[in-house]
Write a structure and sequence with these properties.
This protein has 227 residues and is α/β, with parallel strands linked by helices. The protein contains 8 helices and 12 strands. The strands form 3 sheets. The protein has a 5-stranded parallel β-sheet, with helices on both faces.
């Protein structure tokens, strides 16, 4: 992934310096912004390949920065950093459009693995059109539709739905989804996949359409026809 441009939005100077040095050592081009306003300006001035975004920022906080970045680019990979381990904080970041999150202090090897996974999945181009019932996914155009309505999915939401559409009528466990989509298991206490399923349902059922993404209690989820 050498040469990719990463924007780091972090107000802690020591953490920002640590990230900048580590990422540049790995061959990434790095821009650092110390608050939300400067982060948004930097993204506008020189669009990055991905953003590493702190949750707690002075002025415009990380949640609002994430919302604005996502509104401007549905496919931009966003990795949220948080010093908070509470579920509501993680959920807030994911709802705002973050693709992934890490809790400080950071493990360098894990951070690099997550960055590589996000960039790899964003740059993969696959000339395919997937269909299930009235759902369609144009993988190369990165467009998801239900009937004639565009769903407006984030990059990670698109990836999750694509995985379901490649495994229709198969019950997929939480562990399988974590390993195959994120490349690692968040653990039994995580509700990351629940958040993404809820977001997908809200967009897929916005106009009262029938449910296609179903919960199999105690097991996982399945994409199948409405009962």
């Amino acid at each position: 992934m050498s040469g990719e441009h990463i924007l780091v939005v972090e107000d802690d100077a020591s953490i920002a310096s640590f990230l900048r040095r580590g990422l540049m050592y790995e061959g990434y081009e790095v821009t650092v912004a110390e608050d939300g306003r400067k982060g948004l300006q930097a993204a506008l001035h020189s669009p990055p390949s991905m953003v590493i975004l702190d949750l707690m920022l002075p002025g415009i906080d990380g949640i609002e920065v994430c919302r604005r970045l996502r509104a401007a680019d549905e496919t931009l990979p966003i990795l949220m950093l948080t010093a908070k381990e509470s579920v509501p904080d993680r959920v807030a970041g994911l709802k705002a459009g973050a693709d992934d999150y890490m809790v400080k202090p950071l493990a360098v090897e894990e951070l690099l693995a997550r960055i590589e996974a996000l960039l790899r999945r964003t740059t993969v181009s696959n000339q395919e059109l997937l269909h299930f019932e009235d759902l369609s996914l144009d993988v190369s155009a990165h467009e998801a539709r239900r009937a004639n309505r565009a769903l407006g999915l984030t990059a990670k939401e698109f990836e999750v739905l694509e995985y379901f559409m490649r495994h229709p009528r198969h019950v997929l466990t939480r562990e399988q989804l974590y390993e195959d989509i994120w490349g690692y298991d968040f653990g039994p206490e995580s509700n990351v996949i629940e958040v993404f399923v809820r977001n997908l349902r809200s967009k897929m059922e916005l106009n009262g359409e029938g449910r296609l993404l179903h919960t199999v209690r105690g097991v996982g989820y399945v994409l199948r026809e409405e009962s």
